[in-house]
Design brief:
By secondary structure, this protein is α+β, with helices and mostly antiparallel strands. The protein is 34% helix and 25% strand. It has twelve helices and 21 strands. The strands form six sheets. Strands 12-15-14-13-16-17 form a six-stranded antiparallel β-barrel. Strands 6-2-1-10-21 form a five-stranded parallel beta sheet, sandwiched between helices. Strands 3-5-4 form a three-stranded antiparallel beta sheet. The longest helix is centred in the last third of the chain and has 21 residues. The model has no long low-confidence stretch (mean pLDDT 96).
């Protein structure tokens, strides 16, 4: 049995390794567009690779999979799991070592041009015939690391529906001069996204002020709502509203500001100073701004800066990870319309979906 896997990223490599573990005699060939496999893995978790989260579905299987190829994990706050080495390179090295030991063939610098219902894969390196095809080529986020949306086209060409695509887990841009003045400043707050003055999403967490707008985990988690609006022909007016002291009432802030003349001791001098200046020195307005500071949002930083892609191959057209439309075609990872919040959940899904896809193929091969 020959299985062609398109994409040597997280889901593709996991699928290849698991399949050879379960079916040692199977021929597994991975086709990668770039000259290097797993390039995006190296960039995850700020170079540390938060490869799963104990609160994510399938995390136990993902951890067991990595243990099976010699990777030791370490656990951190909020369920995040990292390689014990704290290096994303260790994750990729262990995966590539496992591929070599198991006999997985990886062909780099190979662009897949089309696939068909006869399981023929056309590439700029020649033709491949397969018994099974796995599309694991990622989404559109960070194309320099390998994902350029080509997998969506491959699946669309054989009849699959691709839902609208948006950058997600991405920074927000603002026209406000205040974010530039606060560059590098962090605040634990509640962030709300307003579209035409209607709150569409809210979350508490850390916001990072930047020269272009807002970043930080809470910003990233809410960014898809902004991306979807700005993708429309007539996007809605968008604001970010920050409660900079979510566990302190406005009256308490006002009392503090009246006593001390500012909120420096609550928010820090940089942030408090910006708000006080915007309030024109009015203490009551300062307290109101601290609880409901409105910033104009002009969009997102786009796919080049996004961690993941929202949208993708429609899940109803798959039974597990097997296509309902074309026999023996599978898809896993970010090419599917499945997205999660920050914290290792998306990378967990990439690895987990690759593992489960291999399990489904192994059943067919028996």
């Amino acid at each position: 049995m020959t299985t062609i896997i398109i994409g040597a990223g997280a889901s593709g490599l996991a699928c290849a390794i698991r399949l050879k573990q379960k079916c040692p005699s199977a021929e597994v060939i991975v086709l990668e567009r770039l000259s290097q496999s797993g390039k995006k893995i190296l960039a995850t978790g700020n170079g540390r690779c938060n490869f799963t989260n104990t609160n994510a579905d399938g995390s136990d299987e993902v951890i067991a999979f990595f243990n099976s190829i010699g990777l030791k994990e370490k656990y951190e706050d909020e369920g995040r799991v990292y390689p014990y080495s704290n290096q994303a390179a260790t994750v990729l090295e262990q995966m590539l070592s496992a591929c070599e030991q198991l006999g997985v063939e990886i062909v780099t610098d190979c662009t897949v041009e089309s696939i068909d219902s006869d399981l023929c894969v056309s590439t700029d390196c020649g033709m491949y015939m397969a018994d099974c095809i796995v599309v694991a080529s990622g989404g559109m986020a960070q194309s320099s690391l390998g994902s350029n949306g080509s997998g969506h086209k491959l699946l669309k060409d054989i009849g699959h529906t691709i839902t609208p695509l948006y950058p997600a887990l991405v920074q927000l841009t603002s026209s406000s001069k205040h974010t530039r003045a606060l560059k590098g400043c962090r605040a634990k707050c509640e962030l709300k996204i307003l579209l035409d003055d209607e709150c569409v999403a809210a979350e508490c967490g850390e916001v990072l002020f930047t020269d272009y707008g807002l970043s930080g985990i809470v910003t990233m988690n809410l960014s898809v709502h902004v991306a979807k609006s700005f993708a429309q022909d007539n996007p809605k007016k968008c604001h970010a509203v920050l409660d900079l002291a979510p566990d302190i009432s406005e009256n308490e802030l006002l009392e503090h500001a009246r006593r001390f003349g500012s909120l420096d001791g609550v928010l820090g001098s940089r942030l408090s100073g910006i708000l006080l200046k915007q309030a024109g020195g009015d203490i009551e307005r300062l307290a109101k701004f601290a609880k409901s500071w409105r910033l104009i949002i002009t969009g997102t930083k786009g796919f080049d800066y996004a961690q993941i892609t929202a949208g993708g191959a429609q899940l109803t057209e798959f039974d597990g990870f097997r296509s309902r439309l074309v026999p023996r075609v599978y898809a896993c990872g970010e090419v599917l319309d499945r997205q999660f919040k920050c914290g290792g959940y998306n990378l967990n899904f990439a690895f987990y979906s690759g593992i489960k896809t291999a399990d489904e193929i192994a059943v067919v091969a028996e």
